[in-house]
Amino acid sequence: MRTRSAKALGALAMLGATALIIAGCSAGNTGGPSDAATDAAELPSTDWVRADAAGVQDGGDLTLAVSALPVNFNIYQIDGNESDTNDIVETTLGGPFKIDESGAPVLNEDYATSAELTSEDPQIVEIKLNPDAVWEDGTPITVADYAATWLANNGSNEEFVAVSTAGWDQIESIEQGDDEYHVVVTFSSIYADWQGLFTSVLKESIASDPAAFNEGFLTQGMPSSGPFMFTDIDVTGQIITLERNPLWWGETPKLDRILFQAVSQDQQGASFSNGEIDALYISSNADLYETAQSVDGADIQATNGLTWTHVTMNAKEGPLADVNVRKAVASIVNREQIAAAANTPVGVPAVTQGDYIFMPGQDGYVDDALPYDLDAGAAFLEEAGYSKDGDSWVKDGDPLALSVTVPADTATNIQRAEQVQADLGEFGIPVEIVSVPVAGYFSDYVIPGDFEMVTFSWVGTAFPVSTTEPLFYPLDSEQNFTGTTEESLGEMWDRANAELDPDARIEIANEINAAIWEYVPMFPIAPLPNVWAVKDGLVNYGATQFETIDWSLVGWAAE
Q1: What 3 state SS string does 286-314 have?
Q2: Residue range 281-304, pLDDT digits in tens
Q3: In this predicted structure, what is the pLDDT of residue 20?
Q4: Can you tell me the distance from the alpha carbon of 88 to that of 558, in angstroms, rounded to the nearest whole number?
Q5: Sheet strands (E) in 210-350
């Protein structure tokens, strides 16, 4: 499963949180560019074919692939925080901010006429909503929707199983200003990434009802406030149909319909080759890259990405509860080899990642990763009380053995797990690969913590400091699957989120990164590039690192 972190801000439909992706599924000094930054700079931020409205034909369908149908269509609820789900839902949502090609938040005039920081002490944001904006049933989008969305996500009511409270829990109030279209947001403390909270919004009736929020959209689509709306979810045929929203107040979309077909990653190449889908997300899949190259007229695009692969270790119990065992695993796995195996075959630079917050090439990136060092790995195991006995590492008579849980029929995850298995096995730590159904990989295994190790991808955002916090802190964060945390992180993230000076904020983020490497709850492997193949003639859609897709302009080039 994939989608562009959470695209630019958290999967762009929900830009304020980092999203899960099954397969990419999605230098110690910052004073000068690192090799990783240089490599990353070789690719553009957006590589799709651009066309203005006059250059796009009216009408037509677009068929895209997802790995499985969503288990929850509410992207604010933890089970809906999958990348494929965000890809689908983003065609129906929007908010006061969108992201431009450079990664900067800019005003989205379809949803707001202005959105400004009007006071720093206390921090106050005032948003003037576009009065033409309505939900698909004609109900105006007002301050009531924003206030209810805040209350559902700020942690004050534990019945709401939200993706993340980050940022929402720093809002003191959301009140009406001059009228119902004037939103006044007062923060209890400085929150530097405030724009990331206002890239979409929930309908008040959903955000004020825990039952509707958590379980109201397991089998039906969310109400639209965007250019497209859900018209059919065919569970038997495994296809979702979205059509033009007749109450959309912006520019009329060029496409008549968008269809999302559930296709396993192993079959997506054949589907693209046969003309059954119009775009193919390749990422680091060499087989898909080779298939795309053989398709007449296919446009292969590549950009830098925000998606990063990793191995998360469950420190709640078992051998991985010992930090030295986790450090040993991180030292024994050859991340450089995995990165080379993933990226080189698809024609993009092989870059490892050593920062939990920033991507290679982003300002602030520091590689603090434990190096590939077998001697260090042995020393960490000895510190944990293990000794070498023949081909095994043994403690109190029990040999060390681990497992990694992977989604079935997902080549990139399985290949990554096999490389981890090979590295650790050669060192004397056997690893069992446990294959589980792809549709329940997150909801049934990752989120409940039913694993020893897992490898998938996190989709980063244009607001990396604030949106990475829930992956590590607090322990009971809905996105912290590691079973551990470090209490000092809370204070450090509070300082970082309240720091408006970019350079000072980076310094705090670097402190956080170093602190996480001290207890190694997971280890990053490599950033994944956005490599796509799109059908000849498809415009304004494809490979992008940050840029919000304008679904009213996506379509087929006019002849």
Answers
A1: HHHHHHHHCCCCCEEEEEEEEEEEEEEEC
A2: 998 888 999 999 999 999 999 988
A3: 57
A4: 25
A5: 228-234, 239-244, 257-262, 279-281, 299-313
Could you tell me how many residues make up the chain? 559
Residue 470 in tokens: 């829930």
Beta strands in 31-139 (DSSP E): 61-66, 97-99, 105-107, 112-120, 123-129
Nearest to 526 by CA among 457, 467, 436: 457
CA distances from 17 to 165, 213, 326, 345, 462 (A): 9, 17, 26, 31, 10
Question: How far apart, in Å, are the Cα atoms of 550 and each of 10, 195, 226, 261?
Answer: 17, 18, 10, 21
d(CA 12, CA 230): 18
d(CA 402, CA 116): 51
pLDDT at residue number 5:
31
Amino acid at 416: R
pLDDT at 25: 35
For the chain, residues with pLDDT lower than 50 are 1-17, 23-38, 41
> How far does the chain reach from its first CA to its final CA, in angstroms?
34
Is the separation of the CB atoms in 391 and 399 below 8 Å?
A: no
Residue type, 254: K
- Residue 433: partners with Cβ closer than 8 Å, 6 or more residues away: 403, 404, 406, 414, 417, 418, 421
Q: Which amino acid is at 299?
A: D
Q: What is the pTM of this model?
A: 0.81
Alpha helices in 411-501 (DSSP H): 411-427, 464-468, 488-497
Cα-to-chain-centroid distance, residue 443: 16
Helices (H) and strands (E) in the chain, counts: 14, 23
pLDDT single digits (tens) 480-531: 999 999 999 999 999 999 998 999 999 999 999 999 999 999 999 998 888 9
